Amino acid sequence: xxxxxxxxxxxxxxxxxxxxxxxxxxxxxxxxxxxxxxxxxxxxxxxxxxxxxxxxxxxxxxxxxxxxxxxxxxxxxxxxxxxxxxxxxxxxxxxxxxxxxxxxxxxxxxxxxxxxxxxxxxxxxxxxxxxxxxxxxxxxxxxxxxxxxxxxxxxxxxxxxxxxxxxxxxxxxxxxxxxxxxxxxxxxxxxxxxxxxxxxxxxxxxxxxxxxxxxxxxxxxxxxxxxxxxxxxxxxxxxxxxxxxxxxxxxxxxxxxxxxxxxxxxxxxxxxxxxxxxxxxxxxxxxxxxxxxx
Length: 294
What we know:
Blueprint: E1 5-12, E2 16-18, H1 27-33, E3 43-50, E4 56-63, H2 78-90, E5 95-100, E6 106-108, H3 114-134, E7 138-140, E8 144-154, H4 161-167, H5 173-189, E9 195-205, E10 209-214, E11 217-218, H6 220-229, E12 235-238, E13 247-248, H7 251-256, H8 258-263, H9 265-268, H10 278-292
Parallel strand pairs: 4-5, 10-12, 11-13
Antiparallel strand pairs: 1-3, 1-7, 2-6, 3-4, 8-9, 9-10
Helix pairs in contact: 2-3, 4-5
């Protein structure tokens, strides 16, 4: 423990692309034409920890984009790791920390090279440094209140034993593996769970920042909506928090379908797609935890 002060700010980086709306191979041409489409959130929230002598002790920053520049089996922190290295080199003695936003449907494009991972990391670090070095960051009062709630998210109609036994013979190894796992679960407990406990957390940092923590791989619509309905850039929305059970689509993405809308559920081993109404359940829980942590 040591005396310190906190400040916050928000920058911007624009390399995240909505992968549902923009085919990867066509993104360079679309960038040249300024014709990238689909929702994204390019905010870069920054929280800085300063020692009494003015030294930067730590910096926490976030961005809503998959860390999937690289696709090899080598160990690497991808673009967030390169951003951390850049910031720690620029500020000796500083600890740089990254949190992932609602980037489940956002990719860094183009991608698939170490050079690009370094490039995006440098761009993200530059966005953070711009806030640290060239703006007047707002102080954060030394107050913290927290709240966590688990929201039951129902599944659509569950598969019966007959369906699972048929799926277990599928040529698709993922479908077959999930079916066998679910049959074992029925054998052990007699039934499949009808819902999943989805974690929603809220931190109030002083009176300045509301920090929201959502489980799963959450799509960008949640960040955009929560910022609009709550406190704009003062609302920070992290995904991948406390539990990652599946993709979490908005109602729009759920209705559209596709990988994030339900196709990825098989890879997570969950028995069915999410039932309608999950977005309102999650948004309602966010507003409750923030209000109750006041």
